[in-house]
Write a structure and sequence with these properties.
The protein has 141 residues and is mostly helical. The chain has six helices and three strands; from the N terminus they run ααβααββαα. Helices cover 69% and strands 9% of the residues.
Length: 141
């Protein structure tokens, strides 16, 4: 018999993977990869950021972020701006086209996520959120 902790971790992974697969289908229908969508969503929700900040936000590896950024620039969804205080640093910013695509796809993804969690009532969702925060605090502390 497996330890309950391992079952919890496996359950978390399975649920995240299931939602990610649904999101991947959605973003693919709109000409994006999951990583591109994550970059656009990060810039949309947090505003302009450096490449490193975006990488940290979407939990991407150092090697893949330049490719993702280059492809989004080619699609004219984001642009690179120079940092006024340090010319070595590039700031990523949404273009009008980037804002348009994320405003089209993001509400559909939010709806998809909400539908995936409809099996829980509001009290269960609040309890799960509390437990995840509690667990995260222990792991990060």
């Amino acid at each position: 018999m497996e330890d309950v902790e391992l079952k919890i971790l496996i359950g978390l992974h399975k649920n995240v993977n299931t939602i990610d697969k649904k999101t991947m289908r959605l973003v693919k229908e709109n000409g994006l990869t999951l990583s591109q969508f994550m970059v656009l969503e990060a810039l949309y929700s947090k505003g302009d950021m450096t490449v490193g900040q975006v990488r940290d936000k979407i939990l991407s590896s150092v090697g893949t972020i330049p490719l993702i950024v280059n492809n989004l620039v080619k699609l004219n969804y984001i642009k690179r701006l120079e940092d006024e205080s340090d010319r070595r640093i590039r700031i990523l910013s949404l273009t009008d086209e980037g804002r348009e695509i994320i405003e089209k796809v993001l509400p559909k993804n939010i709806k998809l996520i909400k539908e995936s969690m409809n099996v829980l009532n509001n009290e269960e969702k609040e309890q799960l959120l509390y437990l995840l925060k509690k667990l995260g605090g222990r792991l990060n502390g």
